[in-house]
Amino acid sequence: MKTEALDWQRIAAAIRTEVVFHEETGSTNDDARNLAACGAEHGTMVMADSQSAGRGRRGAAWVSPARRNLLCSVVLRPRLPLEKWPRLTHACALAVCEALEELPGVPPPQIKWPNDVYLGGRKVCGILVESVLDARGGFAIAGAGVNLNLTGEELPAELRGIATSVWLERGGQEVSREDFAVSFYRRLMVQCERAATDFPALLAGCEVRSFLTDRQVTLTSGGRERAGTVTGLGPEGELRLQGAEDGREVLIASADFVRTRLLPDGGR
């Protein structure tokens, strides 16, 4: 497989915004946050061929070989009240799905609430949206790591049953990182605008791609472990969970360790 450096100038020309590129960095989210703190405009994009301190939610590490995947973070200055900023995670997840759906031979992508995208039942993308308040009202950083051209040999052994890449799902067909980055960015800008103007439509796009709906799950929310069946998404993108013990439906705004559970007969 080719291992060429990312042609970030072609991306910048296509999306007509500032793109900051690093051959290697610690974290594109950290880089984007520093730029935003110095006044970087909405839509500024930070990209890297490799990063040494990539992370997901709750500080989980994100590992990526150099020149294989999409590693990027985008500065967002949303036209939303601060309490509505969690919508941006849904906007980013949907943008990734829509970009994946443009690629021939890729199985239908699904969103594992709140911030992962799956292909064929395995994780292909992790999303991390972080927010900061500043004198201009604040900003958010939308980071996405998408496994594009990762080979099976490059996946750590402990992840081979739970992670995948577009390359693997397409039988070894390489993906243009530049084309995918442009598609994702354009769709992210559209979905961030919809987060402010038509969130029900954005949410509907997430709901039809939900990986968890109708599955039994266990999760930790507010320090309490819960179990039940996911019945869909709430009006602000919360997880609708029908309790396993009492059958009552609750809305889960945030959670850790969301895991699917097998039924006694082996079903889901």
Detail the topology: elements first, then pairings.
Blueprint: H1 8-15, E1 19-25, H2 28-37, E2 45-51, E3 70-76, H3 87-101, E4 110-112, E5 116-119, E6 122-132, E7 139-146, H4 166-169, H5 177-197, H6 199-207, E8 216-221, E9 224-233, E10 239-243, E11 249-252, E12 256-260
Parallel strand pairs: 1-2
Antiparallel strand pairs: 2-3, 3-7, 4-5, 5-6, 6-7, 8-9, 8-12, 9-10, 10-11
Helix pairs in contact: 1-5, 3-5, 3-6, 5-6
Describe the protein in words.
The protein has 268 residues and is α+β, with helices and mostly antiparallel strands. It has two domains: 8-207, Bira Bifunctional Protein, Domain 2 (BirA Bifunctional Protein, domain 2); 216-260, SH3 type barrels. Helix content is 25%, strand content 29%. It has helices at 8-15, 28-37, 87-101, 166-169, 177-197, 199-207; strands at 19-25, 45-51, 70-76, 110-112, 116-119, 122-132, 139-146, 216-221, 224-233, 239-243, 249-252, 256-260. A seven-stranded mixed sheet has the order 1-2-3-7-6-5-4, with helices on both faces. A five-stranded antiparallel sheet has the order 11-10-9-8-12, with no helix packed on it. Helix 3 crosses helix 5. It starts with 7 loop residues before the first helix and ends in an 8-residue tail after the last strand. Mean pLDDT is 91; it is low at 263-268.
